[in-house]
Amino acid sequence: MSAGELFICATPIGNLEDASFRLIDTLNKADIIVCEDTRHTIKLLNHYKIKKKLVSYHDYSSAKKEDYIINKIKEGLLVALVTDAGMPGISDPGQVIVDKAMQSGLKVDIIPGPSAVTTALIASGFSGYAFIFAGFLNRKPGKRREEIKKFEREEKAVILYEAPHRLIATLEDIEMVLGAEREIAVARELTKINQEVIRGPCGQILRHFEANAPKGEICVIIAGWRGQNPEINIKQVVSEIKIMLDEGIDKKSAFKIKALEYKIPKSVIYKAFIDEST
Question: CATH number of the domain at 5-111, out of 3.40.1010.10, 3.40.50.1000, 3.30.365.10, 3.40.710.10?
Answer without folding.
Answer: 3.40.1010.10
